[in-house]
Amino acid sequence: MSRWEVLIKGRNPLTPEQIHRLHELTADWQMLSDLSFADLILWIPIRKDTKSWPTGHVAVAHIRPTTAATVFTHDVIGEEIAWGERGRIDSALSNGEIIRDSEPERVGELMIKEETIPVVFDGQVIAVISRHRNADLMRSPSRLELNYREIAHNLYRMVSEGNFPYPDAISLFDPLPRVGDGLIRLDVNGVISYASPNARSAFNRLGWTNELESYLLGDVAESLAKTRQDPHEEGMRSSLSGKALRRVECENSGGTIDLLVMPLIQGSDRIGAIVLLHNITELRRRDRDLVTKDATIREIHHRVKNNLQTVSALLRLQSRRIEDPAARVALEEAVRRIGSIAVVHETLSNSSEESVAFDEVLDRLVSNALELSPRMSEISIEREGTIGTLEPRLATPLALVVTELIHNALEHGLATQGTLLRIVAERNTRECAIRIYDNGIGLPTDFEITTLSNLGLQIVRTLTENELRGELVLLSQSVGTLASVTFPL
């Protein structure tokens, strides 16, 4: 629940649809504030039900312009006024019409003009916007200021007629370009009647050398764009005609401009459009760099995996030439460990994200361990739970730890009637755990992991404590052994 929903709770019977409409309005009204060089305050009438006459109004939202100095240095949200205390707000609510041309009033050291605009939704006035601007700053307005003010008047009229905010425009307005980044005004035919200095500069960077005014915006953008439109998509000329709400990118070697086209409506007639521009050249360059970086990282993981597989193959060849059984076993264990690391890198090379789907890795590790076991046909595997995705810094040591524990269970946890291996994975918001159960003979009575000379378990202990910052537990049960690794996320 938003702050202003808390303010009106029990004080106004707004429906969820009306509340959603006001959320849409306040999401877009920075543009209204900037175009009118004014502070805007949203007032909600205070009344028990829709049939009751309001007893006053409460300020639920306030926006300050980025194109001018603010009028209110203090926070007005939560301020209440009684009915009759601010006549223009009362009139806008009761008459459903914009109240403007008020005489300036002194607020502190400034002379402020107030204008009130009814917010209409489904034919009903549900709120009022009060607009407050410094009267002294508007005595000799520039051409930019005149155009901004005229556009603002058109948009406020659309608010009072229920045509603004535009329906279903959230995806197009996210993010909403700033007025100061560049603005173009179109007439009803899509011809540019005004372009702000920043808008002209943006098109100059793309290679446009003429003045923009008196040209069709669609023709200008189409002549500059380097890519041809998909024949099944709406053409750039049509998208930038001003007939409908559209968002278009114009790109060439000079840069990329994001254009948001917003038609201006009066009653049921379209009277023109405005276009907000945003130079997104650097943003698109960073996007391309990220794509290149991701592709490079995946290629590195792919090559690391290939190199590890080459090392494994060389070690296998070497082990076949060694007659000493102990040395051969040591090389085979090295091959197994290198293979576990290679599985992680292979997963990363096939992923578009910088994370490892560890459940896939775990399945591969179990499969590889079974293939290397001489009693493969006698071994049953049960899997429970999931791990999800892990960072590579956790996935790589965990893969080695799981490989050693599975191999240890298969080597030492043999039951007379076959081996049952049960692997349980658990994860919550704080930690992750993998538990491996076997139905073998259990641990020796004098088992102590800190003094054990077994290299595999020493590797498991070192990786668990140093890399995973976790805890390793090995316990004999009534039947078999439990090996558990728990580590924080």
Report the major sheet.
Answer: 6 strands, antiparallel
Number of strands: 18
Q: From N to C, what is the helix and strand string?
A: HHEEEHEEEHEEHHHEEEHHEHEEHEEHEE
Low-confidence stretches: none
Sum up the overall morphology in one term. Answer: elongated
Order of strands across the widest beta sheet? Answer: 3-2-1-6-5-4
Helical run tally: 12
Strand content: 25-35%
Roughly what percent helix?
A: 25-40%
- If you compute it from the alpha carbons, what radius of gyration comes out, rounded to the nearest whole angstrom? 35 Å
By secondary-structure content and strand pairing, the structural class works out as alpha+beta
Oligomeric category = single chain
Mean pLDDT: 83
Question: End-to-end distance, in Å?
Answer: 31 Å
